[in-house]
Amino acid sequence: MPLFWLLVILLAMAAGGYVLGRARAIRSAGGDSRKLHSLPVYYGSNVALKVFVPAFLVILLWLLIQPVYVASVVSGMLPDGAIPDNSSRGLVMAEVRRAADGLDNAVAAGLMTENQARNARADFQDVTQRLRDAGQIVTSDVTQPVLRSAQRLRVMESTGSMIMAGVAILLALGGLAWGLRDSQLDFRARNVVERGVMVLLIAAASIAIFTTIGIVFSLVFNTYEFFTLYRWQDFFFGTNWAPSFSGRGGSSDLGVVPLLWGTFYISIVALSVAVPVGLFSAIYLSEYATSRLRSVAKPLLEILAGIPTIVYGLFALLTVGPLLMRVFGDEGLGWMQAGTAVMTAGLVMGIMLIPFVSSLSDDIINAVPQAMRDGSYGLGATKSETIRQVVLPAALPGIVGAILLAASRAIGETMIVVLGAGAAARLDLNPFEAMTTVTAKIVSQLTGDADFASPEALVAFALGMTLFVLTLGLNVFALYIVRKYREQYD
Amino acid sequence: MSDASLQSPSAAPARKGSLHRQDERTRKRNAAEARFRGYGIAAIAVGVFFLVVLAFSIIRSGVPAFTHTVLDVEITLTQQQFDEAEAQLFKTKAYAGYFNATLTAELERRGISVPFDEAAIERLAGKVGGTLREFYRANPDQLGQPVTFELPASSRVDGYFNGRVSRDTLQESRFLMLADLDLVDALSEAGIIHGTFNWNFITGADSGVDNPGGAGIGASVVGSFFMMLVVLFLSLPIGVAASIYLEEFAPQNRFTDLIEVNISNLAAVPSIVFGILGLAVFIQFAHLPQSAPLVGGLVLTLMTLPTIIISTRASLKAVPPSIRDAALGVGASKMQAVFHHVLPLAMPGILTGTIIGLAQALGETAPLLLIGMVGFVARGYPDGFIAGFTEPNSAMPAQIYTWAARADASFYDKAWGGIIILLIFLLTMNIIAIILRRRFERRW
Amino acid sequence: MYDAPQTQREVDLTQTKIAARNVQVYYGDTHAIKDVDVNIEDKTVTAFIGPSGCGKSTFLRCLNRMNDTIDVCRVEGDILIDGEDIYDKRVDPVQLRAKVGMVFQKPNPFPKSIYDNVAYGPRIHGLAKNKADLDDIVERALRRGAIWDEVKDRLQSPGTGLSGGQQQRLCIARAVATEPEVLLMDEPWSALDPIATAQVEELIDELRQNYSVVIVTHSMQQAARVSQKTAFFHLGNLVEFGETGQIFTNPEDPRTESYITGRIG
Q1: Is residue A66 included in any domain, yes or no?
Q2: For residue A237, is it within any domain?
Q3: Was domain C5-260 assigned CATH 3.40.50.300?
């Protein structure tokens, strides 16, 4: 992996720079490090930073820009005639990329020399035959322009990487020279290094922003792409979800309404398990329980929060589903057709959310001042009267916030619904019916065989966008309520 | 002000009943109180009950994955028999014949007679002849000496022993006939067929869809390990750096607010959205290899960062300002005060938070589905350290999901078994975190 | 430990509302109240004074068993109200507290409307037959709390929106709305400004006509102004108990004198 080695080289240069800079600074002070402005460490670090950071930044930028540039050049190279009627430039580009990967693999497998893979005048039949032999052509539609573009893509990418390595190493050398020149007696190395470190700290803190930007962009671009292929009205208001399996668009119905319904239905079932159980546990633990019971029961409940969701998913699929079937299935009440259903997923998700609701409510109930309770006890109220009529109303905004946070968890939960809720999108009121959710469909649309540029795959991004906006809205609102509530008693 | 008392001639409270007798209303209120308490106890009981059911079903369904059923048969094959077999057209069939003869003799010696044929043996233990032939061709020096073969029984026989398959529920098929169970019982009585610890499950790699018996979780443990390495080495330094900036240096301005808002929102973004991010940015855009632990690690890093930042900031905040003042007072720069004094003091808390964040990341599944860790069948271990990051592999939770999604119910045992392994890892990590916290907890 | 023999003579036993005998209070291992004997009379204001941490509030909270809410607290000895032991097993603290109301240091109105704050007690104890009755009780209580005129137009606005002094009078009104026989007040003016304090002091004097009022304060002037009887606590002991005038002008115990003259406290 050349990038890996490039980084290793840069790090080695930085280490060398450190040693040289430190030595040079000490030499400039005649071997007496006390005469230096800063500790010798800082002179070394100064050089190391100057070697590594600019070069590293350039590599990062290069890696971001090069694929976009190369793709646009290659895409421009494709003649309009190379794009079939029922396809788009994006689809053909995906083909090009696959062909390029195929060439890479064929070269790696020794079925083709690098020259053959690059040579644009190489015989088309010969190259495709070799690719086919290497098992690298899955579809049959590698056409001449596609192959040529793929070759071009490979050439541009490899030259790009070469240039990048060259530029990075030159920059590192420049940094080395700059740093070493500065390594003198009076140079304020500490200040410079500290400023550098500060920039790194800020950069680290900004990653949160970049992550958000990354999420928003990857969702927005692909969602936009999706809406160019599929009418947004049909997506938002369509009541039928039936993607075609050909993966080539056409007759798919991609209405989000049944998925949203499934999501909400399952969340409601989950909350109607988690909220009473969680809330009453929190009340009991914070108002009634002895400290012994509290120290046992609280961690026990919190174990439920530490269990990965895949475990709950399996629990839903293999334990709860069959159990419910025994009661509500054909042998019992006959309401249930299969183990995977709204009830199964909702129940298990409710179990998962119990500790979430209870620990948040616990915090909130504890934030109600003791004076409030004393006032009520002083009037001769019993504990439960105090809790129901004084503590809970006082804590209500906070508890509502906690429930909204739990709801946002429920909406975004994936594994439990993928394994426990079923795959059929349905608008139905029967909780023993299988339904599916936004998250489950994101998984199934993106892990299937559908082409990445087809509406069947792109719809996942629109679903992701819907999910992101929904949960974000709920969270912002919930956090706002909780913060308001905290301020009230601070 | 005196109007109050003047207006209320009846204000002088009438003597109420004795305190020593509860009145009707108090009794009712106390009953309501008891009911309310009852709800609380019931809620906790329900929570604990769910936990117990979960633990019980994990252990009950998961333990069978750690044992498998084997046939122990001691065979002595002479050079002559070997040559004869090799001379035949159906060579493995000849070996299978030797095997059956030995088995029959063995059963007769113990006074058990049960009819069986080669097909039954094949249903029970797979292609025995092939195994024998392979062994003797590789080890000709063992000819003429007694060799004990430990042959893994088929997954249905496994199921018969751990109760998944019973005589009542068995559907006769080419995989297992009802009559075979008589043979199994006889062999079991003779001690030839018995359960043993399944090391292959812990050290092995995934098998194909048709061989549940041979599936192991080892390779995906390695995949998870490489992923956690990425997460650790990216999220710890980045998280600590971001926290130091926000807690110690950040001025009160809109940029800082923006970062804070972003961090708290990212902490609540559903994990599947991070999967979409990983798919779009790392695979679609940056063309990193699909199913690689590197990509999984990157995605999980972004997901874990908010958790680590939040807990790190809490530990930094817990270091009293007097420490900073003391360092600044002897002429240290602010940066030196932070790196020399505050950070080391906050380190136990930071490590605890990081371990808990890692544990969360280790169990996370949804994002891994999207970056292709599920479709991939991890048949072997990576070739080397770098390959460990870049070669496609599976990860523990993804492997569990893969097994759970397979049609053959025999894989369910494996999935539960995988969960036990996963939970053991999580438990260990959490215990380490608790010990760290207990050990280094400092009260200022 | 009974330092005021002459008071005992003056007390008419039928008038004694609360009698404490040999009361000990422990917080875990700490012996917080030692051997307290005291008689609290009906229709009298009794003040508990003493330096901080002397146990006066603790003792006050024993009188309506508010200490029950603290796990580590243990009370020994007898406290009788109208001759009935309040620590008897048969006593329900809920019933007791309806009889012995309490007002706290910091005003603690519930986050409800003014009306609901006052109506809370009558509602839980079932004192009103119907809505009109309840309205009546609330108005009477607010009048007795000397706050009716200020809030009669905004009974539905939240109690937390009132000023500190108003809040504390609201809390007093809330306490008297349950028709208690004894009113305990734990430094009810500690969070109030001088004007609000004066209002509350005046109010306490009014309340004396109907209730036995017990107040805790560390201000001697206040005790002198509002109370008829004063008990001086020091380090968990009841040092002296007697007529307020006498305690302040002619204390018997040297410790009381030191406190009053400002040498301890």
Answers
A1: yes
A2: no
A3: yes
A278 in the same domain as A191: no
| Mutation for testing the B interface, residue in A284, A311, A315, A463 having most B CBs under 10 Å | A311
Which contiguous run of DSSP H or E holds residue C27?
strand C16-27
Write down the pTM of the prediction: 0.83
Shortest CA distance from B336: residue in chain A: A194
Distance CA A343, CA A337 (A): 12
Q: How far is C7 from chain B (nearest CA, A)?
A: 26
Q: In this structure, are A296 and A393 located in the same domain?
A: yes
Does A182 lie in the same domain as A126? yes
Task: Supply C91's token pair.
Answer: 């006593």
Architecture of domain B218-440: Orthogonal Bundle (1.10)
| Structural domain of A450 | 253-489
How far apart, in whole angstroms, are the C-alpha atoms of residue C89 and residue B436?
47
Which tokens hold the place of B355? Answer: 């371990």
Residue in chain B nearest C81 by alpha carbon: B19
pLDDT 10s per residue in chain C (265 long)?
Answer: 444 444 444 444 447 889 999 999 998 888 888 888 888 988 899 999 888 888 888 899 899 888 887 878 888 888 998 888 888 888 888 888 888 989 988 888 988 899 999 999 999 888 888 999 999 999 999 988 888 988 989 999 888 888 888 898 899 899 989 888 899 998 888 777 888 788 888 888 888 888 889 999 878 888 888 899 999 998 888 888 989 888 888 888 888 888 888 766 5
ipTM of the complex: 0.84
* Strand C16-27 relative to strand C30-41, pairing: antiparallel
Quote the CA–CA distance of B340 and B342 in Å, as a whole number: 6
- Could you tell me if A180 and A264 lie in one domain? no
Same domain, A222 and A257: no
Q: Which of C108, C120, C178 sits opposite A371 (nearest CB)?
A: C108
Q: How far is A283 from chain C (nearest CA, A)?
A: 16
Count Cβ atoms within 10 A of the Cβ of residue C117 and give its class: 0-12 exposed, 13-18 middle, 19 or more buried.
Answer: buried
CA distance B33 to B37: 6
